[in-house]
């Protein structure tokens, strides 16, 4: 059986769940997992389905899903992870360069095995870095979150993005944005979560005098820095280390943890169950 992820989002109204699930069942698919929520009158649902590939027309199913969604006033997205083509990865950045450079170098060497059609920044600080790797860079400077995120979502759809990496992207994403890409946004946080969430994590660790710190790659959820953990890397801190030395050690861990997480995702090795990441051992 192959699997696919469906996300549904729009104004809350009666009949959405029934219409979507009936369409899924009528097309001989199984529902493996479903989550739904309503916030500020916005309805969200994510559905993992399974199907027999030899009897399933992906294009026809996607078009039919779009038609049903349109009738009930919602937006639908479907992601087929079993496809043999390379996944399209978008990168969101602010000003820090080390994670972005590592991603681009590793992909150029053929180690990540992804397409990176677009990089989106809040300023043009990292545009020259992207030019060196011949990747399109778009700057979105809107300070209003809704305007900024609507523009980003439109770009992601235009480039048929499968998943997103936040390469030290220093903006908090709204629930609406996250719900469009459930378990498809990977963030790197500079601490061993769940310890020291939020801003200035290295400074928090340094001031508390911890002996071990590190970095965590995790899926983004609506709760800040509390998404399912994918990978972690750690380093020791002795009493002689300065805060800059701590940060330098942490940046190396950030790179390692994120590369591991992206590689696992690209190779369809990750599965979320009840808020926890399961690493699959067999090929899918």
What is the level 1 CATH name of the largest domain?
Answer: Alpha Beta
Distance between the termini: 9 Å
**Sheet having the most strands:** 7 strands, mixed
β content, as a range? 25-35%
Which H/E pattern describes the elements? EHEEHEEHEHEHEHEHEEHEE
CATH topology-level fold name of the largest domain: Rossmann fold
Low-confidence stretches: none
Query: Helix count, per DSSP?
Result: 8
What's the short story on this structure?
The protein is an alpha/beta fold and 284 residues long.
What is the secondary structure topology, with strand pairs?
Elements: E1 2-11, H1 16-26, E2 30-39, E3 42-51, H2 58-71, E4 74-80, E5 88-93, H3 98-108, E6 115-121, H4 127-132, E7 137-139, H5 145-158, E8 163-167, H6 175-180, E9 185-189, H7 201-208, E10 212-219, E11 229-236, H8 243-266, E12 270-273, E13 276-279
Parallel strand pairs: 5-6, 5-8, 6-7, 8-9
Antiparallel strand pairs: 1-3, 1-4, 2-3, 9-10, 10-11, 12-13
Structural description of this entry:
With 284 residues, this protein is α/β, with parallel strands linked by helices. The chain has 3 domains: 2-80, ACT domain (Alpha-Beta Plaits), CATH 3.30.70; 85-181, Formyl transferase, N-terminal domain (Rossmann fold), CATH 3.40.50.170; 184-284, Formyl transferase, N-terminal domain (Rossmann fold, 3-Layer(aba) Sandwich). It has helices at 16-26, 58-71, 98-108, 127-132, 145-158, 175-180, 201-208, 243-266; strands at residues 2-11, 30-39, 42-51, 74-80, 88-93, 115-121, 137-139, 163-167, 185-189, 212-219, 229-236, 270-273, 276-279. 35% of the residues are buried.
